[in-house]
Design a protein that fits this description.
Layout lengths: L14 H4 L3 H10 L1 E5 L3 E2 L12 H13 L5 E5 L5 E5 L1 H10 L3 E6 L4 H12 L7 H18 L17 H8 L3 H9 L5 H8 L5 H7 L4 H14 L5 H12 L5 H8 L14 H5 L11 H24 L1
Helix pairs in contact: 3-4, 5-6, 6-8, 10-12, 11-13, 12-13
């Protein structure tokens, strides 16, 4: 994303710019920056990006406590007088956690579609984005771009009124049209399956195949995943989609396909990383965890044998 021009660039050819000094233009912009009570700011509707209370958030809280909000959030005023947050959901949450009552914001005039595009663009600068977040963000942005096509542009905003498409979005995002289409398909998954995609337990292509099933069939797949403790392979999802298109994907058919043994079902042992690491000295590097666990099990097994020998005497 770095280096790409924003969709929202103020025109330099308006009458205000031609007949005003830079100092006056800077002053006009400053007038739009104000401290707004948090209670008057609403989150963006259907905001697709999660605001996590993780280590990065706590670092942001400490930074705001020390230096305040350096980069103002972006809001637009609604018809009821309240404000809608376009960019800065993490900053707003950090201010709440820091005990602040206001958030420094820049108030901009944007239509709903312009705000949607800016919201997605600004949040794509995050270092970590879940597949589900990308999925709904791409969908929202494509829908906004399609609605904008053909509309007359505002004097101070570009570009508006162009014939946007997946091709245009692909050129802006750096992802192929096919990959964007795959992400958008994920929005058709039931929450349980989408969560498995976010966790990396279901890969993109199997997930896309499952997205073509209706909700009842997807629920059957979820039930079988819980029962077999194993997710379907790409080949299995292709067959399920084929059966579904033919009207043959019954609950029994899903069970038969999902009950097939796959390599990732054989002798699988799952250890919770946080629980295991809590029992390992911090001096042991992460890449040596497996070796440490195996040695610990060897010693424990030896201890059990010695105790059994003592008890048998």
């Amino acid at each position: 994303m770095a280096g790409r021009k924003s969709d929202f660039v103020l025109s330099t050819k308006s009458l205000d710019d031609l007949f005003s000094t830079q100092e006056e233009r800077d002053e006009a912009k400053l007038q739009k920056i104000r401290d707004i009570p948090l209670t008057e700011i609403d989150d963006f509707p259907d905001h697709p990006f999660q605001v996590r209370e993780d280590e990065d958030m706590f670092q942001l809280v400490e930074s705001i406590k020390e230096r305040g909000v350096i980069t103002p959030a972006t809001v637009r005023q609604k018809e009821d007088g309240r404000y809608e947050l376009v960019s800065g959901h993490r900053r707003k949450k950090a201010c709440e956690l820091a005990g602040f009552e206001t958030l420094r914001c820049e108030v901009v005039e944007l239509t709903r579609d312009e705000a949607t595009i800016l919201m997605v663009e600004s949040n794509f600068q995050r270092s970590q984005i879940l597949p589900s977040e990308k999925a709904f963000a791409y969908k929202m942005r494509l829908e906004a771009m399609k609605r904008q096509a053909g509309r007359p542009s505002k004097e101070n905003l570009v570009p508006v009124g162009q014939n946007y498409s997946r091709e245009e979005l692909a050129s802006q995002s750096g992802e192929s049209q096919t990959q964007i289409q795959r992400y958008v398909r994920l929005t058709n998954l039931v929450p349980e399956l989408l969560e498995l995609v976010d966790e990396g337990k279901i890969k993109m292509r199997p997930a896309v195949e499952l997205s073509y099933l209706d909700e009842d069939c997807q629920r059957d797949v979820v039930d079988e995943i819980d029962l077999n403790d194993c997710t379907p392979s790409h080949d299995q999802t292709i067959r399920m989609r084929k059966f579904f298109n033919e009207g043959k994907l019954t609950t029994e058919a899903v069970q038969a396909i999902m009950s097939e043994e796959k390599p990732n079902q054989r002798e699988k042992i799952i250890l919770r990383g946080d629980k295991v690491r809590s029992l390992i000295p911090k001096s042991v590097p992460l890449n040596q965890t497996e070796e440490y666990v195996c040695k610990a099990l060897e010693h424990y097994n030896k201890f059990l044998r010695n105790r059994a020998e003592r008890d048998s005497r």
